[in-house]
Amino acid sequence: MEEDTVANAIQLFGNVSSFIRKFIFRILSVGPIPNHIAFIMDGNRRYAKKWNLDLRVGYKAGILALICMLKYCMELGLKYITIYAFSIDNFKRRPEEIQNVMDTMRDIIEGMLKEESSIVNQHGVRVYFIGNLRLLSEALRAAAEKAMNVTAKNDKAVLLVCLAYTSSNEITHAVQESCNDANRACHGGEKSEIKEEEEEEQYPIIKLVDVERQMYMAVAPDPDILIRSSGETRLSNFLLWQTTSCLLYFPKALWPELGLRHLVWAVLNFQRRHSYLEKKKKQS
Amino acid sequence: MLSLQFPLLQIINTLSSKPKLLSPNLHNAHLSSRINPHETTSKLPLRATAQDVAVNRTVAGAGSSAEEAVLPDGLRRELMPKHVAVIMDGNRRWAKVRGLPVRAGYEAGLRSLRGLVELCCKWGIRVLTVFAFSCDNWSRPKVEIDFLMSLFEKGVEEDLESFVREEIRISVIGDFSKLPKTLQELISDAEETTKNNSQLQLIVAVSYSGKYDIVQACQSIALKVKNSLIEPKDIDESLIEQELETNCTEFPYPDLLIRTSGELRVSNFLLWQLSYTELFFLQSLWPDFGEAEFLEALCSFQQRQRRYGGHGL
């Protein structure tokens, strides 16, 4: 009896919260809504330390916060969400910590693979794993590729999970591919009698679009907002190429503490600057 | 954003005197919290006197300048950044708020920049990179751009002597092809004249963008591949770093980036090089940036824990 009352109370609270949230989003939607938000989910370990929890529990709290945030973003109407799950630099951490993260990632990916019941499939979310996946274990890489295939037909929203990623690595790869393409184009052309100085000019010039095309993140438009939790104000080698004119927001809350109010604040700041940025884009 | 790094004729007179502390700038109401934790009065110190500044002398180590850097109270020598980058934003807004023409904003911005260069010399910062003119700024009105280019030229001509005297090395990065020929020649001369100076390296980014820097590095590398100097598979992060325009300095990665005027974005400045840079955003407009604001940025920097993705909580 008492349990029923508690369950009813929780459900009522949930319904009221949901109603208030949708009302807030309705008001926000009067202004421009960002298309793509990127998150650096920083602070899980500090959260675990703060509450005297095991590190794994800290990561689990982080996953719950992520699921909530994804839900809010999709309700708001965002099409692209990018998350920084694991940096190449994080391989410097203690082996047990790396294993924790990899195990968590594996659990999440296995959840995505359950075709009918997975959250991503229910909400029509297509998933990309972005990064140097060759640095991951064979099993994890295979699972990631399978998840990308399984969700390939979803078209409501796109979730980009940066795994074994750094911008330097991404840019280096793009430069390498651009040079390969340029090299092929140069040697693939017909051999004719060209003077030496002309040959230099005939060499394909590499343009910005050539490099951009080779980026791992070329599957999505640039983010409109980058949110990094835990108050650290740095990019940590994340989406350096893609965030050149992106709004940066650094709330002090640790990742598991990040909530609706932070998202609303970020979107309000985005709306304030949006008309000025659009004008600048048209000028250039 | 400031598109000029050098003073006008009337400011030249101040250069001939000994290096002195910054004169009070116009102070706007939006300055954030107090900088010096030991300061007990409610007013921010705009000009530190000899009694206020705690002398923090150490013997210069091998490879650093022979001069002893004097740091104000509250800053720790071992935590000073080697390379500071600045986006000098807000000159036009500063002028607009005061009902002045835009050029007055740029002139005021100049004074701030000169003050910052002085402080960097005094506090032992090795490299200062300033975003003077972005590739995107070419879309501004022609009248404004012409004015800026002529000010650039005048500034380079007039300030060179003081750079030589103060042992400041000047380097300019960016796409020079759009600059007037006369300015290009002046820049080359200035770089050549000051190339052996070692007190401070002032890198001025003119007609620059981070993406452009990477693309030109890619182009150089592609040429080397074409000439069989390297294989595509040899292309790695350190090769790209060597080809970027910041290869003119020993410390290409800024430790601290300061952006004024409250804008919360990087605006295509030093893309690759900002991977682990601590970012600091100020509400103040660039002409109001002075010693107090710089101290605030440095204090904030010194309190940060830089983990580079590794251990530590």
From TrEMBL, chain A:
<dbReference type="InterPro" id="IPR036424">
    <property type="entry name" value="UPP_synth-like_sf"/>
</dbReference>
<dbReference type="Pfam" id="PF01255">
    <property type="entry name" value="Prenyltransf"/>
</dbReference>
<dbReference type="InterPro" id="IPR001441">
    <property type="entry name" value="UPP_synth-like"/>
</dbReference>
<dbReference type="InterPro" id="IPR018520">
    <property type="entry name" value="UPP_synth-like_CS"/>
</dbReference>
<dbReference type="GO" id="GO:0045547">
    <property type="term" value="F:ditrans,polycis-polyprenyl diphosphate synthase [(2E,6E)-farnesyl diphosphate specific] activity"/>
</dbReference>
<dbReference type="GO" id="GO:0005783">
    <property type="term" value="C:endoplasmic reticulum"/>
</dbReference>
<keyword id="KW-0808">Transferase</keyword>
<dbReference type="GO" id="GO:0016094">
    <property type="term" value="P:polyprenol biosynthetic process"/>
</dbReference>
<comment type="similarity">
    <text>Belongs to the UPP synthase family.</text>
</comment>
<protein>
    <recommendedName>
        <fullName>Alkyl transferase</fullName>
        <ecNumber>2.5.1.-</ecNumber>
    </recommendedName>
</protein>
TrEMBL record, chain B:
<dbReference type="GO" id="GO:0016094">
    <property type="term" value="P:polyprenol biosynthetic process"/>
</dbReference>
<protein>
    <recommendedName>
        <fullName>Alkyl transferase</fullName>
        <ecNumber>2.5.1.-</ecNumber>
    </recommendedName>
</protein>
<dbReference type="GO" id="GO:0009409">
    <property type="term" value="P:response to cold"/>
</dbReference>
<dbReference type="Pfam" id="PF01255">
    <property type="entry name" value="Prenyltransf"/>
</dbReference>
<comment type="similarity">
    <text>Belongs to the UPP synthase family.</text>
</comment>
<dbReference type="InterPro" id="IPR001441">
    <property type="entry name" value="UPP_synth-like"/>
</dbReference>
<dbReference type="GO" id="GO:0045547">
    <property type="term" value="F:ditrans,polycis-polyprenyl diphosphate synthase [(2E,6E)-farnesyl diphosphate specific] activity"/>
</dbReference>
<keyword id="KW-0808">Transferase</keyword>
<dbReference type="GO" id="GO:0009668">
    <property type="term" value="P:plastid membrane organization"/>
</dbReference>
<dbReference type="InterPro" id="IPR018520">
    <property type="entry name" value="UPP_synth-like_CS"/>
</dbReference>
<dbReference type="GO" id="GO:0009570">
    <property type="term" value="C:chloroplast stroma"/>
</dbReference>
<dbReference type="InterPro" id="IPR036424">
    <property type="entry name" value="UPP_synth-like_sf"/>
</dbReference>
